[in-house]
Amino acid sequence: xxRFEVPEVDYTRYDNRQLAAVPLxxxxxxxxxxxxxxxxxxxxxxxxxxxVGGTELRLGIDASEEQAREQIAGAFAATPDxxxxxxxxxxxxxxxxxxxxxxxxxxxxxxxxGFAVRSVDSVSASFGSGTQTQALLGVxxxxxxxxxxxxxxxxxFVPSIAVVVSxxxxxxxxxxxxxxxGIELTLGTVAALLMLIGYSVxxxxxxxxxxxxxxxxxxxxxxxxxxxxxxxxxTSLAAMAVMAIVATLFGIGLLSSIGIILVFGLTAxxxxxxxxxxxxxxxxxxxxxxx
Length: 291
What we know:
Layout: H1 16-41, H2 49-52, E1 54-60, H3 65-75, E2 82-85, E3 91-97, H4 103-112, E4 116-123, H5 125-154, H6 157-181, H7 187-213, H8 218-249, H9 253-286
Antiparallel strand pairs: 1-3, 1-4, 2-3
Helix pairs in contact: 1-6, 1-9, 5-6, 5-7, 6-7, 6-9, 7-8, 7-9, 8-9
């Protein structure tokens, strides 16, 4: 049976600025993307039906996909926000923003067009706004709680801030990619971002513990942490990639979005942990207050 071996990186070939340059540059680009999206749309990421309110119809349409989409476009007085086909079935998920029309009006228009209405789900704009506030407060509370726990564990500024900055970057980069890929912010994608906080803290604390609290020199401790951390992260990344591919093939939009966010977030975590965090820890160990 093949065995995966984490190669030993020769960190002595690179100074701290070189190690930190790439993750900081990627973080800066991600912040620019989010900032640009906020200036353009008034929100840092496009909110989904859960947060802005609206109506989702599942319609059975016995026609080719091209014909079905044409029929959907002509059946409603309002313009659909999105139309997605469920893979392997002649069923289409059609969503409308809350301001477009009521659920009853849309259902009546679908029936008049001869569509088989499988289900109707509606979220009011006020309820969606409240849900969005609660979800964002939950992410903020989780991040603040994580930061407080990290500072309580290490009791020193540089190792603690390294974990916090890495976790922040692990969230910001996927959010920027959500904007570029058109993935909406929903309760499911918020859950994915919360998972990334856990993944990030896990790998960063593992690295910090090996470097600061175990025997061996800096590079030996770093490689020892990488053997466990990289294997763990790559295993999770592979699982999320498979989930994203399968969900995309079967038209399961929510799982596909969650998988894509976690793939990008875990990839960012590898970069931030073993470039940015390592550079900060090495500076702390050899040049900073730990000298």
